[in-house]
Amino acid sequence: xxxxxxxxxxxxxxxxxxxxxxxxxxxxxxxxxxxxxxxxxxxxxxxxxxxxxxxxxxxxxxxxxxxxxxxxxxxxxxxxxxxxxxxxxxxxxxxxxxxxxxxxxxxxxxxxxxxxxxxxxxxxxxxxxxxxxxxxxxxxxxxxxxxxxxxxxxxxxxxxxxxxxxxxxxxxxxxxxxxxxxxxxxxxxxxxxxxxxxxxxxxxxxxxxxxxxxxxxxxxxxxxxxxxxxxxxxxxxxxxxxxxxxxxxxxxxxxxxxxxxxxxxxxxxxxxxxxxxxxxxxxxxxxxxx
Length: 290
What we know:
Layout: H1 2-66, H2 71-96, H3 101-118, H4 120-135, E1 143-146, E2 149-156, E3 160-164, E4 170-174, H5 175-179, E5 184-185, E6 191-193, E7 196-200, H6 206-218, E8 230-236, E9 241-246, E10 248-250, H7 254-272
Antiparallel strand pairs: 1-2, 1-5, 2-3, 3-4, 6-10, 7-9, 8-9
């Protein structure tokens, strides 16, 4: 009797173990199939998404090229677009695998905020660089005064601008410093006006001096007829009568014409007997008897 009971208990235990093992096998099989399908779907999302990201980036770059955007900005925008789309694709793939991406997105947002605060100055320079490239207040090769520096623009970068001064010194200026100050572009226009102040003595014939200055400008082929040059008495100074001499020339002739006019005026004044006065002071000495 006891042997029968023991045998019955053993058979029941074996049956329960078999049922449990079957349940485990079925669970593992189902989960394995589901995981395999999810893994294949995640890989498909990643591969197709990456290909789509490259395609979208290429499209953005072509649009920028047609819009005549600077090459530096095209590369930078393309990298940003590709990185952003790739992050989205990776997040979608992980979510397909069952990974909770909510915390992952929060971590990315927090990291982005921390990086943004740490790079606040650099981001300001970057934004200023984008504005310089888009709005083009000056181009490479222009002679400008910006950011407290005057020189020829050699390169416009995302974070800074490289300029070369007249004595061949290379200066790198942060873009934010340029956009926050007044920009004077001396190469923006084809023509430029020379402003000279020429003084003659009160004893000189003003009409003769004026006629000479007008003839001087009219005889120089580099002086433009339109706009017409201006020669006029500007001020009766303490020691001289001051004329303004304002001819218009091509931008590339500005300094050459300015220097040559200044030299010729001095030499011709000497030959014609005109005086170029300078401040003088009269000293009167009075003697008194003891």
